[in-house]
Amino acid sequence: PPTPQPPAETAAIRSQNNQSLDENGLRECTRRMFAGFPGLLALQLNKNSIGRVEADTFANNGRLQQLFLDNNLLTDQGLHSRSLRGLLGLQELKLSRNKLQTLPRGLFADLGKLTLLDLFSNQINCIQACISASLSAVSTVLIHACYLIEKLLVINIKEYAFANLSRLERLDLSNQNLRSEAVDRHDCLLN
C-alpha cells in the first residue's frame, strides 16, 4: 500500500515551525525579523555573517526549542544581555565557531529549560560561576577547542563555575590549557 502523505496544511505548519536561514549572508538579528513567528520551534542561522543579536530579538518566540547560530561572526560586543530574552522553552543553543571570549551577564536568564549549550571553537577565556545560575537543566556543555588565532587559550575556570548544574552529564573541556582560580562566587562566567 502507498505511504500516506500528510495534508498540505500540516506541511505548511511544519515549515513555519522550523526555519532554516543558513548561508543567507545575514549580518544581524533584530526583533522585527522573528516577531511574526510566535510558534517557531527551531531556527537555524548557521554560516551567515551575523555579528550582532540585538536586545529582545526573540521576545515573541517563547516556544523556540532550538537556536543554532554556528559559524557566524559573533563577538562579546555583538551579544546584548537581553539578546536571548523570552526564550523560555529553549532546549538547545549552539554558538559554536564564533569569536566569543566572554558572554554578557544575564544572557542565559530566561533559559531555564536549556539542556545543551555549545560554545565549541570560540575564544572563551574565562568560565565563572553564573553560568550555572540560570542553567540548572543543562545536561551537556561543550566548550572544547577554544582557540585564539593559533594559540591555545588559557581557560580560567572560576570556583563554583558549574556548581548548580545538577543535571550535567557531559562537560567537554578538551583541547584546553586549563587553570583553576578561586574567586568570589558572585563573579560571573559572563561579563
Trace the largest sheet across and list its strands: 1-3-5-6-7-9-13
Structural class: mainly beta
Average pLDDT metric: 77
Number of helices: 2
Order of helices and strands: HEEHEEEEEEEEEEEE
Oligomeric description of these chains? single chain
**Cα-based radius of gyration, to the nearest Å:** 18 Å
Give the termini distance in whole angstroms.
60 Å
* Strand residues, percent: 15-25%
Measured as a percent range, the helix fraction is under 10%
Shape: globular
Uncertain segments are 3-14, 147-154, 180-191
Please render the helix and strand layout as text.
Layout: H1 8-17, E1 18-20, E2 28-29, H2 31-34, E3 42-44, E4 52-53, E5 66-68, E6 92-94, E7 116-118, E8 126-127, E9 140-142, E10 147-148, E11 151-152, E12 154-158, E13 170-172, E14 177-181
Parallel strand pairs: 1-3, 2-4, 3-5, 5-6, 6-7, 7-9, 8-12, 9-13, 12-14
Antiparallel strand pairs: 10-11
